Amino acid sequence: MLRTLRYLGGACGLAGGDFPAACGLSRGRPWLLRGVCRCGRSASTSSFDVVIVGGGIVGLASARALIQRHSALSLGLLEKEKDLALHQTGHNSGVIHSGIYYKPASLKAKLCVQGAALIYEYCSKKGISYKQCGKLIVAVEQEEIPRLQALYERGLQNGVQGLRLIQQEDIKKKEPYCRGLMAIDCPYTGIVDYRQVALSFAQDFQDAGGSVLTNFEVKDIEMAKESPSGSQDGMKYPIVIRNTKGKEIRCQYVVTCAGLYSDRISEMSGCSPEPRIVPFRGDYLLLKPEKCYLVKGNIYPVPDSRFPFLGVHFTPRMDGSIWLGPNAVLAFKREGYKPFDFSARDVMDIIINSGLVKLVVENFSYGVNEMYKACFLGATVRYLQKFIPEITVSDILRGPAGVRAQALDRDGNLVEDFVFDGGVGDIGSRILHVRNAPSPAATSSLAISGMIADEVQQRFEL
After folding, report:
1. CA distances for 166 relative to 70, 159, 237, 323, angstroms
2. Alpha-carbon torsion 293, 120, 416, 187, what sign?
3. Strands 75-78 and 211-213
4. How far apart are CA 282 and CA 337, in angstroms?
5. What gap in Å lies between CA 321 and CA 317, rounded to an integer?
6. Bridge-partner residues for 51, per DSSP?
7. 133 vs 189, 196, 219, CA distance in Å?
């Protein structure tokens, strides 16, 4: 497994000392997790064999996979918020991607195709509602057709099920109000509430004996300097994880799935901070309920291969609503879901430590256009009208937003594939960082978790 992962130079131990659903629970069953520790265990110091940092869908899936393989070990999961899956998982469009977009033989492609099959199987087994409503990727200009055909060939190489190229008359049969010259029909694409899926992963983890500790914001990760007072285990648990309230957890090994904070958690443990995370906000619009008949399934544009964003699209939701978006604009706060949310630390981090300036210079016109569409509703509607001419400004409402954790290297290059970071030294050899888990990480979560469990088992010799 080691050869399939991308590693970042083994820098650990050399330094000193991860888009939107309306935030909230699913409208269906109330997801109450049994035994969730909100302030740590009753003892002043808790110990685990393995600790997973991060309560999003990737962290929860990984925790579930690890405890299913290693039932004799004690596992704990730490989450800084009071509830699980509130950020990228809880601000997600809910699409189960088929795997068509990604470079053949890349981890993205392999994990997405595998992950989609696993998500459908899991939801069916658990009784979690989903809809395999399909997707059309539509070319509305003649110049887009060669890119569309190339994308179709890529999908075939990736093993995506049921793909076919269709002409105008078949587009109308599938989406009566959609205009297009040619489209790729992706029948395997679906929708689901990913927060509901993530909470089900958490329930599986707890049912198997795992512990979930919320309200535990990690402040420091280091090697223990001495054995805990009164401990019978000596230095069996040599890693100390402290939170912002002074509480600490001890463990043998750590797996971090920190999303928007993956670079800071890595640096905190003495590992490399590269690649840096740059937050991009994606704003969604909502189609008014009386106009939802205009869209039956997912309708996507032909993507621009220069960017990891798939463009503004039409997305049906499990509750029957239709989302339009998202755009992609720089967020001035890592969890900044509103246009004027601002963090001086986050902004300085972006400017000083990432390659953002070079990225902005190279893609200035694209960025300006995205910001213009974010500010002026009419600009976005004019773009949407290329696909469904009947839509007007009066049919649209402003909706929720999410923030994407985009990894960026110092040269201003977007890191597009999954990145896992291991290290050397006392602490580095005991930590595995999931440094970049970009879209489609939710779709791929079960496949990712299997790969992480393989690597943990081999790396830590569990």
Report:
1. 48, 19, 59, 24
2. negative
3. parallel
4. 8
5. 5
6. 76, 254
7. 7, 19, 43
- What pTM was estimated for this model as a whole? 0.89
Condensed to tens digits (0 to 9), the pLDDT of residues 259-279 reads: 999 999 999 998 888 899 999
**Are 148 and 182 spatial neighbours (Cβ–Cβ below 8 Å)?**
yes
Q: Characterize 307-331 residue by residue with b for buried, 16 or more Cβ atoms within 10 angstroms of its Cβ, and e for exposed.
A: ebbbbbbbbbbbeebbbbbbbbbbb
Contact 322, 316 (CB under 8 A): yes
List CB contacts of 186: < 8 A, sequence separation 6 or more. Answer: 98, 100, 134, 135, 136, 137, 155, 160, 162, 163, 298
Model confidence pLDDT, tens digit, residues 41-63: 333 458 999 999 999 999 999 99
> Helices (DSSP H) in 160-304: which residue ranges?
168-174, 194-207, 262-268
Token pair for residue 238? 């040599």
Q: Report the relative pairing of strands 248-256 and 45-53 from DSSP bridges.
A: parallel
Question: Residues near 158 by Cβ (< 8 Å), separated by ≥ 6?
Answer: 99, 100, 102, 104, 109, 112, 113
